[in-house]
Amino acid sequence: MSRRLETWQLRASFAAALSRMYAAEVPAYTTLVEVSAEVNRDYAAHSPDAERLGSLARVTAERHGAIRVGSARELAQVADLFAAFGMYPVGFYDLREAASPVPVVSTAFRPVDSEELARNPFRVFTSMLATADARFFAPALRDRVERFVAERQLFDPALIAEARRIAADGGAAPERAERFVAAAASAFALSREPIDRGWYEELTRVSAVAADIAGVTSTHINHLTPRVLDIDDLYRRMTERGVMMIDAIQGPPRWPGPEVLLRQTSFRALAEPRRFRDGDGAVSEGTLRVRFGEVEARGVALTPKGRERYDAAMAEMPAGAASAEVWAKHFPATDEEMASAALAYYRGGDCTKPVVYEDFLPASAAGIFRSNLDTDTHAAAVRDDSHYSLDWMAGQIHHHIHNPYELYEKAAS
Known about the structure:
InterPro entries: HGLS, YdcJ_bac-like. This protein is α+β, with helices and mostly antiparallel strands.
C-alpha cells in the first residue's frame, strides 16, 4: 500500500508549485528570492539571535501569496480549496477604510496550529471585491459587475469537489496528491484570454484593483512574498541591482528594540504583456501593470494592549515616514520589558521565545497596493449600507474565521 502524504506536505508542494509558476510568469520574482536568500545568509552569519523568530530554513523557504476574487461564492470556493492544504481563514481585513482606500474586504488562509506553522507556514491573503459598497459602485455598475462575476467560473467544480474529499481525508496518496496540487496551482496561472478593453477601462476608473478582479474572467497570483531577516538590507540590495522599489517600507520603523508585527515593501509592478479585445472584435497586444514583487520581515505578535500602542505610534508618525524616535515613545527597548508589560506574546512567558506574527496589517497592504497603482481610488460621498463584517463573511463561506489573538494566546500558553 502506498504511503499517504499529509496535509502539511500537500501545502508545501502547493507553495512550491505556485512559486515555480510565478517565477516563470514574473522573472523579477526570481531576483527577489535570490536576494532574499543572500540577505538571510549574511544576516545569520553575523547575528547570534538570527533564529529567534524561526529557523533560517523556515524563514528562507517561507512565502505568502495574494489573490483576489469577485464574490462571496468565489471566496467560498477558495475556502474549500485551501482547506485541503490545512489553510483556514484567519482575521477580517477591511481595506476600504485605509488612508488609500481599496474596495475589498479580505481574510488570510493559513495554518492555525503552531506545529503546522513550523512545518510550512504558507499563507494566502485573499481579497473579495466589495460590490455592495455604494461609495465605489453605483447601483447600475454594481449590477453589471455582479452579473459578470456570476457568469464566470474561476475553479473547475471537479477541483473543488476533490479538495473537499482530501480535506475530509486529511491527506492523499502520492499520485492523487500530485494531480491535485498541479490542478490547484494551475487555477491561479495568468490567463492569456483576451480582455475586453472597454469593460476593463471602465472598471479602472473606479479602481485598478476592481479592474484586476472583475475586468477578467480568471484569477491569478497577484504577488508571492518571500520573508527576510533584514528588510532594509534587502531594499538596498534590490535598488543596487537596478530594480525599481516602491518609495518606502510599510509598517513599523527600523529601530534597536524588538521587531513587531510586520514590515513590507515591494518592487514596482511591471508592465506585463496581455491581449485585449476592442469594441470591433479585433484582438491586439497590450500591457497591464498590476502584479508586483512583495517582500516581508516578521516580528513578535502583539497583544491587544500592544496593538493599541502600535496604532497610537503609527498615528503619530510624520507623513510619509516611520520614525524610530516616535516609536521609542510607545514601546520599550527589550523583550523583557515587552513581556512584563504584556505588550507581546512569548511562549510560556519566556521573553527569549517570541511568538511570530503570522498575519497581516490592512494599512500596510493598502499602502503597497496604492504604491503600485497609477491612480487613486476615490470613495463617493454616499452612505455605505453594505454591512460587510467577519460574521457576514463567515456565514457566506461556511467556514469559521479564526480570531488571531486567540491563536496567539494558545501558542503562548
